[in-house]
Specification:
The protein has a two-stranded antiparallel ribbon. The chain is 71% helix and 2% strand. α1 packs across α4 and α4 (62-85) runs antiparallel to α5 (91-108). The longest helix has 26 residues, at 125-150. With 217 residues, the protein is an all-alpha fold. A hairpin with a 2-residue loop joins β1 (8-9) and β2 (12-13). The chain has helices at 15-34, 41-48, 53-59, 62-85, 91-108, 110-121, 125-150, 154-158, 161-179, 186-201, and strands spanning 8-9, 12-13. The chain starts with 7 loop residues before the first strand and ends in a 16-residue tail after the last helix. Pfam families: TetR_N (PF00440). Keywords: DNA-binding, Transcription, Transcription regulation. This is TetR family transcriptional regulator. Residues 40-59 bind DNA.
């Protein structure tokens, strides 16, 4: 059974569902432009053009609404990421895809949503728990991608995909934060350029080792 806010009549959304969608869109926009400190029920409602009481009616508070905005953005980006990385068959191609993803995320603001909430969670244990839950699927996604590309290779033995996935997520969050200081993005672009130059040189380390044949006893 669909909840009150998501019921449809004659193929159209009821006003409650439309209001929820408007609030989620407004929450994402407000968090991107004003940051967590400047985001409140009032500022979100003003952007959405609705009464601030509806934030609490539909979501129970500001943080649950912001998490809903993050969930929507994450779902959209994950779909796009899976399609993008599926075409990468080696580290060089993966570095190119990662650069494209970084540029798209900076323009679209997804990573800004995530980093703003990560920063806010430092002082809010309840929010931190929810962020950790939402970070895990991304770590698993990166791990699975790396395992597909370098699994079974000497590089994977030296740097396990799980460890590399943690490093990649940490690096990505750090890059996004530094982007706010690097106005023209030259330094952050240089980092991805460096990755693109290093990836081909690691080719020998990503060759999968043949399995040893068992000798008959």
């Amino acid at each position: 059974m669909l909840s009150r806010g998501r019921r449809r009549v004659a193929g159209k959304q009821q006003p409650g569902a439309e209001t929820r969608d408007r609030l989620i869109d407004a929450a994402a926009e407000t968090l991107r432009t004003e940051g967590y400190a400047g985001t409140s029920a009032r500022t979100i409602a003003k952007t959405a053009g609705v009464n601030s009481a509806l934030v609490f009616y539909h979501f129970g508070g500001v943080d649950p609404l912001l998490l809903a905005a993050l969930d929507r953005s994450s779902e959209q980006r994950m779909t796009a990421y899976r399609e993008a990385v599926a075409k990468a068959g080696n580290l060089e191609e993966l570095a190119e895809v990662a650069t494209d993803i970084y540029r798209a995320d900076i323009e679209g603001g997804h990573i800004t949503l995530f980093t703003e909430l990560v920063g806010a969670s430092i002082a809010r244990p309840d929010l931190r728990e929810e962020i950790v839950k939402r970070a895990e699927p991304w770590i698993e996604f990166v791990e699975q991608t790396l395992d597909r590309v370098i699994g079974g290779s000497p590089l994977a033995k030296l740097l396990p995909p799980r460890d590399l996935a943690y490093a990649a997520i940490t690096f990505y969050l750090g890059v996004n934060l530094f982007t706010h200081l690097d106005a023209d993005r030259t330094r952050t672009e240089a980092l991805f350029s460096l990755a693109g130059r290093v990836a081909p040189r690691a080719k020998l380390l990503t060759l999968r080792l043949p399995r040893r044949r068992e000798t008959p006893s």
